[in-house]
Amino acid sequence: MSPVRALRPLAALTFACAVSLSAAATTAPPGGAAAPSPPAAGTAAQATAAPAVPSATPAAMPPAPSSATPSVSAEAERRYKVLSEELRCLVCQNQTLADSNADLAVDLRNQVHELIASGRSDEQIKSYLVERYGDFVLYRPPVQRNTLLLWFGPFALLLVGVLIWWLVQRRSGAARAAGVAEAAAPAARTDDAALRRARALLDE
Amino acid sequence: MRSLKFLIPLVIALGIGWFLYAGLGNNPLEIPSPLVGKTAPATPIALLNEPDRTWSPEQMKGKVWLLNVWGSWCSGCQVEHPVLLDLARQNVAPIVGLAWKDRPQASKDWLAKLGDPYVLNVSDQTGKAAIDWGVYGAPETFVIDKAGVIRDKHIGPLTPEVLAGRLVPLMRRLQAQ
Questions:
Q1: Claim: this prediction has a pTM higher than 0.80
Q2: Quick check: A133 and B133 CB within 8 A?
Q3: Residue B117 and residue B84: Cα distance in Å, rounded?
Q4: Complex ipTM value
């Protein structure tokens, strides 16, 4: 197969990806690239109108274009987006609160909104949810005693791997050196022995 | 020593195998509640039959009781319902029913049709009280002791086995305290 022919499927794939990406860029809302399924043509306009929250939460609407000054709600919106990306939906466990359409996720998003509006800090909101649902709601588990293995286990394994590699290298290096020495040694040893025997014979 | 070296990969493989096998027994849908061992949330919840009045867990102080979270939309709750009726007949402990994100009329219809095992019915239409209780899926059942501390939580439908093996002995122990 010629190299050009081999590259053709790759080119087709790249093209397909580019097309779907540009389609996603035009239809999907900002930050919505991880949405579970691309919206159908009919709902595309709807999806752009309500970025993160499918439910009718007024505070989740994009800021009106007329508001030129960065308002408090824009800051709240930004915090809300970050938080809902970091919190896990407990029903569909591999989705963030932002991605999930589960009923509970909608409730929890509303709760996060309210907590932000009531002036709680990000840390307070996270600990509010951890108190009720446990560390499981956090996508980034905290470093504590029972997560030490999770956080540092991979590095420990890497270290073990490096150690084994180093030991193997050293041994094969030593073996090679020994091999060289052995290859050189017999001649020397026979010479030595022969000399000694010769001296002994001469001395007799 | 050298002769036993061939065992090292075997031991590692067995170790990994054991680790993975132990993982098979875990149910990822059962997330242990951090509320076990803590005081039950005091959030007042509206009564199902009189929405203007509220009930709060403090009113149960001095009793060992159960909080059962359910909804007429929840199929697991239907499975568990006869078990709850049975438990109520045995008069082990008062059960409070929390209708979670349910239309009050639908909750009432369900209780009228299938029977009412609860000493008291409260309704959390917004889901706010449920968040305070760390509820993430119905049915869920909490055991609360006389001091108002949550002592256990069962996720999923109650079964006679779970009750007889775990919850009823726990309640009896707590009642004796």
A1: no
A2: no
A3: 6
A4: 0.82
